[in-house]
Amino acid sequence: MMTKDILLIGAPVDSGKTRKGCLMGPDAYRIARLPDALSDLGHRVVDLGNVQPDAVDLAEHAHLHELPATIGWTAALSAAATKAMARGLPVFMGGDHALSLGTVHGVAAHAAAQNRPQFVLWLDAHSDFHTPKTTDSGNLHGTPLAYVTGRPGFDGFPAVPHPIPEENLCILGLRSVDGAERAALEASSIHRFDMRAIDEQGVTALLKPFLQKVAEANGLLHVSLDVDFLDPAAAPAVGTTVPGGATVREAHLVMEMIHDSGLMSSMDLVELNPMLDERGRTAQVMVDLCASALGRKVFDRPTPRGL
Question: Is 11 within the bounds of a domain?
Fold first, then answer.
């Protein structure tokens, strides 16, 4: 296995929705021994601490929840992502999914500077393809993919000079998409697979062609893993639980395929809310999945305590 320089970056974003708690996510990953899990695989791991949002002189919006804070996070995380990509493989420990407004924006800028295409694998129950003008909830954690593909309506946010082509996106695990998002998705060229597709065809048949496309294009691959990709029975610590998600085994297969491809260049771990967890169970599952994406094999998994 190739040794990598892995940069852990805390992104305690809690502005993307009304339910609080995700700001504790970065420390939960640290307590669950994410740095040790990755260094045990032979990687060089550096924890860069937590990013702080930029100050934004903007009034609160009547409908959009914590708009100024989210814009500040987007600018700060974009800069952090671009800088980190020059040093190694950043893993952004979130934080709600609004953090991806910044992380994907930043890695795409790095890819453009390298004259390479940016691809994104979005592992999520939701498509997050709303714009600020289409969201009924006003929660901006449902908008990152719309933003990074250059859809209009993101007034006040950093410009998107390097929009990601829709065909370079793959959403896996969908099972909660409202009407406005569905219409936008159906009009797009985003690769998208719901849980029925996983049930009928299996993870390998769905993911392998996308990974091949990334490889053939010499692309960079950003992986954004939302806790709610998993079934809430296995990962309860998320405020957007949707029954019928991926099993832990299916999720590990996705991660192992990502590792085998050698394509992943950056990663988000998002929507972990420790206030909703059961004795750290979800945090540990997410740590284990991250380790699988970075080289842990089936037979290498640690034995659970008490066995």
Answer: yes
Q: Strand 191-194 relative to strand 5-11: parallel, antiparallel, unpaired? A: unpaired
Round the average pLDDT of the chain to a whole number and report it.
95
Q: Assess if residue 305 is contained within a domain.
A: no
Residue 145: which of 117, 116, 94, 108 has the closest Cα?
A: 108
Burial of 180 (0-12, 13-18, 19+ CB in 10 A): middle
- The answer as to whether 307 is a domain residue is no
Contact present, 21 and 104 (Cβ < 8 Å): no
Go through the chain and tell me how many residues it has: 307
In tens, the pLDDT along 206-216 reads 999 999 999 99
Task: Determine if the pTM surpasses 0.90.
Answer: yes
Catalytic residues: 97, 124, 126, 128, 141, 226, 228, 271
Question: Residue 302's pLDDT band (boundaries 50, 70, 90)?
Answer: low
**Domain region containing 258:** 5-300
With respect to residue 306, please indicate whether it lies within any of the assigned structural domains. no
Number of domains in the chain: 1
